[in-house]
Amino acid sequence: MNQETQQKMEVSDKVEKENSIGDEHEDENQDLVEDLLFGDIEFESKEFKIERLSHSQKKLQQYHQHLQKHTDKEFLKDKWNQRKKRVNKRLDGLSNDEKFQERCKRKEEIEQERLNMIKGYESGIPLIIDNSFEQYMTFREIRSLAIQISQTVFAQRKNKNPFQVNVCNASQQLKDCMNTQIFKKLPFNVYEQDILEIERFKGKEANMIYLSPDSENELETVDPSGNTIYIVGGLIDRTVKKWASYDRANSMNIKSAKLPINQYLSDLTRRALNIDTVTVMMGLAIHLNFDWKTTTLTVLGNRKINEDLKEEQKQIY
Questions:
Q1: CATH assignment of 94-257, given 3.30.40.10, 3.40.50.10490, 3.40.1280.30, 1.10.3720.10?
Q2: Structure pTM?
């Protein structure tokens, strides 16, 4: 047997071995596929669980990320620089003495605003925001309610008759929306209990008035002494749900009333107002001796008033 013939035989043996190994692998793969299809194989692997967030949890996460961005140092620095530019633009053209007087005046205003908020928290007119309508609201509307609560507390800075803001029936979802640095600095009370289950409000149904746009009674005056407790429904509904706050008041045997402003509003305007707008109007009405026409025009402006009141204003000015 010559050398060439021997080399050819070795090569053919090697090819046969490789083919046999390939066939074995194919058989093993085929067996594995069949086991997977018919469930005869058991894997010894660690159990793992993929946590899927619900739609509302995703929205809440995005909301907190948005707030985190707005509390970032660089963002706050940019906002401070923008504010500084606006102040310098306002003071541009004034002498040094006039600038000093403007700054002193602004410091006094800031201090007065701080005192108003403290006064409202300690001894203001009791205002309850009733969060018992959450089953009617989406997460977006709950988040809007949280924003309106913060705006209501902020609105007491310039209110000469500030309100003491109390949030009742606070759910975990609402508290999650309020779990930010902004809310932690605001002076207001949060309760998980229903209104009549809170110790300080027990047995005071006779002194309570539930504000509802569907009520037949009108709120002619506002008691600045703090003896009357005013309740506002925390219902943020994009499509208006009528009678919700009115039925809630009746179920609790509490008097209901609406602000006497419907005669001044346009027919196209929604009768339901934001919570912060309601408190601003009530506080201003006390200051104006309950002149609701002037109050409506001052707070809502020409955008929402009816044509008769617009013509009257044109004649005056």
A1: 3.40.1280.30
A2: 0.70
